[in-house]
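Hello forum,

I keep getting stuck at the same step: I have a sequence, I want structure tokens, and every attempt I make locally crashes halfway through. Rather than fight my setup again tonight, could one of you with a working pipeline run this one for me? It's a single chain of 262 residues.
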Amino acid sequence: MTVSDLVTTVTDRWRTAGRDVLASTIAGVLAWFFAQTVCGHPHPIFAAIIAIVCLAPGLPSHTKQALGLLVGVGIGIAVGEFALEFPKNMSLFRGSISVFAAMMLASSFGLGPVAPIQAGVSTLLIFVLGPETAGYVRLIDSAVGIVIALLFSQVIFTPNPVNIVRTAARKLLRDLANALSQYSTALAQRDHKPALTAMGKLSAAPDSLVALGSSINWAGQAARWSLRGRLSAREISDVVTKIRSPRRKALCLDSTLRRSAG
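Reply #2:
Ran it on my machine without issues. Output:
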């Protein structure tokens, strides 16, 4: 990969993540501000953390992430508070059993890995920091962070799933067209070096194909878990149907190129 290709790849990744990074940064600041001014918590770090985690780039669904965080934190605090009622001897054994029970309970809801992770962490924090710091206060901070995150993901910074799928499809076609054009020119000029460069670009095309598949999967999640996705569910279905046929052809082309390169 040349320096130009590396710069283009990094730039594309920044462009993809930039919207969510900006949203999570602003949401984290606002969550801290509201938890501090409205709830009176001097250091509401959990409010900011929850908002950032809910809006982090690359998530298939910010709403599902928020719900998983809330369930995980609630279960973890409840289990931790309950476990504190038992005798304090064998604290390590009691803590490990509590973390196990909290994570198992959170796994029952099928909300992804974030729910059991948060349940285990919340239970552990109850034992380490005590319920005054990690219990009720953390639950309120988490609720503030989740409300701010949902406001951003559902209303303010809601991405258009149709445009995301179309952008990924255009990138795939553009990469293939540029590589094939360069390869055709190199063959016409019987120049070996540009032909190898073009083959290298064709070999990188599956990355764009994988990105397109991820965009389609994300759009499907958005149609289920976001307000804007639900409103454009029919349009998402139409766009995905139109894209799948060329996508299959691209898969066949990639397989053919790999056989020829081999």
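The longest helix spans residues 3-37. If your local run keeps crashing, start a new thread with the error log.
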